[in-house]
């Protein structure tokens, strides 16, 4: 759907996004921080750029951690399927 | 609401997020790309890191553009309010 403001909305796509973000609340927080910065009424362009660089860096770190966790879970799942009787020890935080 | 998977869902917060993303479809695309990468079943940690670095950089650029556009619109709005009879010329893309 297109409005005069060029906004579009795809319910299925938004639903998928929200589902993924519910599994990654730490990424949701970073996305919100970045969106807030883009709407910041204060700050010079240089300041905003500095804050954005810091924010996207934090996002990159969090995303990498999320990938590592998901890769670890996938590896554990693969092992469970190959050796159904093996008990996979959960890594504690 | 918390489930056993540690997922939480705050409808108001999700609604606000979607509203902001509808105004910034280019940021939505970047967020989706980053989320997809965190769930990538293929690739080594080094590859994923390289892709993530590239993706968050693109996000940073898009976010900076979004801020600049919003700052420009705000400046035009301020001018309109101060000098109601002035006609602000719209910058064409």
Oligomer, anyone? homodimer
- Helix/strand/pairing class of chain A, anyone? mainly alpha
Secondary-structure element order of chain A, N to C: HHH
Q: Given the C-alpha coordinates, what overall shape of chain A results?
A: elongated
User: Using DSSP, what is the number of strands of chain A?
Assistant: 0
Terminal residue distance of chain A? 44 Å
Number of helices of chain A: 3
Low-confidence blocks of residues of chain A: 1-6
Q: Largest sheet of chain A, if any?
A: none
* Helix coverage percent of chain A: 55-70%
User: Mean pLDDT score of chain A, rounded?
Assistant: 87
Region (Disordered) (chains A, B): 68-93
Biased composition (Basic residues) (chains A, B): 82-93
Give a quick precis of the structure.
Two copies of one chain form a homodimer. With 93 residues, chain A is an all-alpha fold.
Write the layout of secondary structure elements.
The structure is a homodimer of 93-residue chains.
Chain A (H helix, E strand, L loop, with lengths): L10 H13 L1 H14 L6 H38 L11
Helix pairs in contact in A: 2-3
């Amino acid at each position: 759907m297109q409005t005069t403001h060029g906004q579009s909305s795809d319910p299925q796509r938004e639903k998928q996004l929200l589902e993924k973000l519910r599994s990654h609340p730490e990424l949701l927080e970073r996305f919100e921080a970045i969106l807030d910065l883009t709407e910041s009424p204060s700050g010079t362009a240089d300041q905003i750029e500095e804050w954005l660089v810091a924010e996207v860096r934090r996002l990159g770190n969090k995303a990498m951690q999320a990938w590592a966790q998901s890769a670890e879970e996938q590896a554990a799942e693969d092992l469970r399927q190959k050796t159904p009787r093996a008990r996979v020890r959960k890594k504690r935080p």
